[in-house]
Amino acid sequence: MAVTSEGGRPTTGPRRLGGWVRVATIVAVMAVVAVAAVFFLRQGHKPLRIVVLADSLTEGMGEVTDLRRTWPHLVGDQLRIERGEAAGSGGTWLPASVSGPMFGFTAGRPGEGSWSALNESGVPGSIARGPVTWDTSRYDSAVVHIGAERAGQRFTASSGGAEVTFTSTEEGTASFVVDKLGPELTVSGEGTVLGVLGRSGSGSIDVYNLAWAGSSTKDWLGWAGRPALLPLLREIDPDVVVLSLAGNDLWQGVSAGDFADNLGRLHKLVGEVAPRARWVLGTQPVADNTPREQWMAYQQKVIDYATELNAPLINLVDTMPGYSGGPFFYAADHAHLTDAGHALEAGEAGPAIRRALLP
Prior knowledge:
With 359 residues, this protein is of the alpha/beta class. The chain has helices spanning 26-42, 56-59, 71-82, 118-121, 217-224, 229-236, 247-251, 256-273, 292-309, 316-319, 339-357; strands at 3-6, 9-10, 48-54, 62-63, 90-95, 109-110, 115-116, 127-128, 132-135, 141-148, 154-159, 162-168, 172-178, 184-189, 192-200, 205-209, 240-244, 278-282, 313-314, 337-338.
């Protein structure tokens, strides 16, 4: 979808970064990678992009103190450091809202007259109509993602006393860049605000944590049929897609067989709009309120599908204890996670994502 701009610039970007020449020492490798990453970004090349489709164990529900302490962003920081970049550089997906009240952090703050557009757009956290405001004190610029219902819908982004206005030229999704951010960014418009990618420095990795608490494969398949989710993923053009679902399928009464079929359908639909993406699948730790045998019937489907795809596996069902075995990983509800729980998840997810990135 094309976008006309008044005072801003549309997002553009070539393909992914290439491989690196081997050098004698690790220090030299990191130096070469860091310099090359800055060069590529200054030339307009696309950063490496990681998308995560998951539920509350990834979104951050529980006792997580900061959006950037959720495990996808912790992994992004690890990868940046390995490339010789600052941990907080690169891109961080800032959802327009979170899924409920049980969060220790805020994302976007929807204003009066707005409402959740999840079931309309299919994008977790998306907000319709009213203004959405983010704390952007950590970021230098932002990529604003929107959904328009028709041509001629206007969106206004305000930050640091400056204002940028964009007008859609047709129905669908689009994005535009806001440079030189102030402490806050407010976006309003006649359509839907899908979310914002906050960018800092010259980091070469963007992380899109699209997780939504309570979601199942059935939910994600429904959202894939809405007008914005798959077009957004096409626009992101991810290098890696992480899929980690199961527990809510069990609790929503989806059979293990249907869950397995849904995994395949979701992989196919996302794969059609993100054909370059390498896949990583994730299992989930056994919930204390569910018999292990019942839980494993679903986790085994994930393990089997990862084997079928030859995809790396984040195997939390075998490596992360439940509340009774590791209470410090869990919030007071014994189900959702703390900062320590997300740090443990990041330790398991990082090697799997690195394997997915190998040539």
